[in-house]
Amino acid sequence: MAAGTTVDHLTETYRAHYRSLLGLAALLLDDTASCEDVVQEAFIRVHSARKRVRDPQKTLAYLRQTVVNLSRSALRRRILGLKLLSKPMPDMASAEEGAYDLLERDALIKAMKGLQRRQREVLVLRYFSDMTEAQVAETLGISLGSVKAYGSRGIAALRVVMEASA
After folding, report:
1. Engineering a disulfide at 25: which of 12, 35, 36, 128 sits with its beta carbon 3.0 to 4.6 angstroms away?
2. Each residue of 2-23: pLDDT tens digit?
3. In this predicted structure, what is the pLDDT of residue 55?
4. What per-residue confidence (pLDDT) applies to 101?
């Protein structure tokens, strides 16, 4: 077989890291079905291109990058769909029920949406996916210094917005 990741190595990577990749997708997307689809598609794509993954030790990094890219694509499609459809009214029993929770959640979501895309990605990978800065840099294909800068600026921006809404 030509140089590259073997099917056996990819199978072992699947067994060992499927749940962590699913968790990564879950932090970037918001529904389980989309997360599972993204992770499965990532494995399919890496399997198809496994001969190009010359160093088997980088298989997980390729998978992470593919999950991030596919999540971005899913979000772009979702945003386009939301622009085309009108929003339905929330299905709530009363105006008081859950109002405070909605306000807090809306403030955080709005603050996260207000961040630059890279800042949001760095914060999600670094703090919610519990990756090291080096792993985040490798996953996103940016330098370690960029990861630190995006993370620092993202946290500062979140702090300002959240304190102002409190």
Report:
1. 35
2. 466 788 888 898 899 999 999 9
3. 82
4. 66
Domains in the chain, start-ordered, CATH in brackets? Answer: 1-86 (1.10.1740), 102-165 (1.10.10.10)
Q: Are 155 and 123 in contact (CB under 8 A)?
A: yes
Write out the DSSP string of 58-103.
GHHHHHHHHHHHHHHHHHHHHHHHHHHSPPPPP--S-SSTTHHHHH
Burial class (CB in 10 A: 0-12, 13-18, 19+), 148: middle
Q: Burial of 10 by CB count in 10 Å (0-12 exposed, 13-18 middle, 19+ buried)?
A: buried
SS3 call for 132: coil
pLDDT tens, 108-135? Answer: 777 878 899 999 899 888 877 888 999 9
Q: Which residue has the tokens 């996916």?
A: 129
How does DSSP classify residue 124? I
Q: If we measure between CA atoms, which residue out of 38, 21, 112 comes closest to residue 75?
A: 38
Query: What phi and psi, each to the nearest 5 degrees, are found at residue 12?
Result: -65, -40
